[in-house]
Amino acid sequence: MTTESDTTPSAADKQNPMLKLALELGPLMIFFFANLRGPWLVEKFPALSALGGPLFVATALFMAATIISLVISKIVLKHLPIMPFVSGVVVLVFGSLSIYLQDETFIKMKPTIINALFGFTLLGGLLFGKSLLGYVFNAAFQLDAEGWRKLTVRWGVFFLFLAVLNEVVWRNFTDDTWVAFKVWGTMPITILFTLSQMPLIMKHTVAPAGETEK
Predict the structure, then answer these.
(1) pTM confidence score
(2) What is the DSSP secondary-structure string of the chain?
(3) Average pLDDT over residues 122-147
């Protein structure tokens, strides 16, 4: 199995940026729709009733969509992006536990586990002199070592913030509110955070190898 393993974007990454975005957002949109229209889906497909309530139906479809997304990524992009791959593994494990035990807690804690894992991994990597964010954003940016280090620190802290925020929302609000937040809240927050990092990115951007001689 091949995952993104360096900070140089592949040809497939450069040619299919929108596909990468669709593969990452697609499963989330299906999760939101399935939870919102759970009763209608069960009416149209009675077999889904065996899964349990709307959130369990949404979880099952989320798992299926995640697998399809990873398969398409492997076929078209020739590798499995690290973050979606790790997230997919956690989705399958916690989603399966949620459905099997009929306990929504597992799927609700999935974002907490994933974000905490990413946060601690990024910050922990710096202790060993590794700016691991370069493995994640290899198709988007080419930065110098100092730029990757600073960006890694910021993203590490941001992931931990998202982990805490997910815990606050799912423990204090309704299922529908949590699902809406997961789809429509987390993404805008992440986009705003990403945009706020553009000054740092622009300051530390370096020309790709082969272009410096031109």
Answers:
(1) 0.71
(2) --B--SSS--HHHHH-HHHHHHHHHHHHHHHHHHHHTHHHHHHH-GGGGGG-SHHHHHHHHHHHHHHHHHHHIIIIISSB-HHHHHHHHHHHHHHHHHHHHT-THHHHHHHHHHHHHHHHHHHHHHHTT--THHHHSTTT--B-HHHHHHHHHHHHHHHHHHHHHHHHHHHHS-HHHHHHIIIIIHHHHHHHHHHHTHHHHHHHB-PPTTTTT-
(3) 75
